[in-house]
Amino acid sequence: MALDGGVEAAADLVAKAKRVTVLTGAGISTDSGIPDFRGPQGVWTRDPEAEKTATLSAYLADPEVRRRSWRNRLESPAWTAEPNAGHRALLELERQGRLVAIVTQNIDELHQKAGNDPRLVVEVHGTMHRVRCWACGWEAPMAPTLERVRAGEADPACEVCGGILKSATISFGQSLDPQTVRRAEAAALSCDLFLAVGTSLAVYPAAGLLPLALQAGAAAVIVNGEPTPYDDLADAVVRGSISEVLPLLVATRPDGRPRRPGGGP
Q1: 3-state secondary structure (DSSP) of residue 136
Q2: What's 157's domain CATH number?
Q3: pTM
Q4: What pLDDT sits at residue 232?
Q5: Residue 100: which domain range?
């Protein structure tokens, strides 16, 4: 199948790579029905006030922000979302034995749901599938706390110490886990291709992984619906639907012919 110029250049780079580190952002999950944040129809684009729910200082200080956050969590489409062809393409990359890691800014666990080895998924912004007490550090699966919200607790408190509960995600103003950051940096430094997918490359330190990989000698491919600050540094940039583009990139062999499922010749 003939590919257009941008896709062809990216497919060539992916096909020749032996060690691929992938950085994923919200754009890979939009075709699974989970809206992104900063895109033209993003959650925060349409409702700037909603960004307060992802800001730690506002969340801790304002009970109304927490109540809104819990309503949003309860109604999130992520609970019923299924992996799309973009997620499955990254599973195929793992099956081919070429995946170093998926460093994801997403909190939806769709990479694990698609079948990727959880040990290869580095969740720099945490996961919405767990809840944590800000006071005592108690942590547990999210589902029982959501049941409390459904039962009428608008702002459920920690049952251990009475402290504020929050999803085990990283909010603005909250420090990332240093060990997780080190794993992400190690993945960027040990690849020969850095593939940025569905991310605006505007949030650090995740956005800084691409130049880090370039400094270590890797090539870089960006697949995103909108321009990013690093497009000029990338070896190839592809615009388009990630669930359509990514399978093409992963399925192409160095000789330009399609790969068989499982990475065979």
Answers
A1: coil
A2: 3.30.1600.10
A3: 0.88
A4: 95
A5: 1-34+83-125+176-265
Q: Are residues 188 and 218 in the same domain?
A: yes
Which residues have a Cβ under 8 Å from the Cβ of 64 and sit 6 or more positions away? none
Active-site entry in 87, 111, 125, 129: 125
pLDDT tens per residue, range 160-179? 999 999 999 999 889 999 99
Number of domains in the chain: 2
My answer on whether 68 and 130 are in the same domain is yes
- The Cα 113–Cα 40 span in angstroms is 27
Same domain, yes or no: 246 and 149: no
Tokens of 113: 């749901």
Per residue in 226-262, is it b (16+ CB within 10 Å) or e — as a string? Answer: eebebbeebbbbbeeebbebbbbbbbbeeeeeebeee
- Give Rg (Cα) of the chain: 19
Residue 125 is a catalytic residue: yes
Q: Are residues 133 and 226 both part of a single domain?
A: no
What's the mean pLDDT in 233-255?
88
Tell me, what's the pLDDT at 265?
Answer: 41
Give Cα separations from 160 to 102, 155, 156, 157, 164 (angstroms).
Answer: 34, 15, 12, 9, 11
DSSP label of 220: E
First-to-last C-alpha distance (Å) of the chain? 16
User: What digits encode the pLDDT tens for the residues 2-56?
Assistant: 345 589 999 999 999 999 999 999 999 999 999 865 555 555 445 556 667 889 9
Task: Count CB neighbours of 84 within 10 A.
Answer: 23
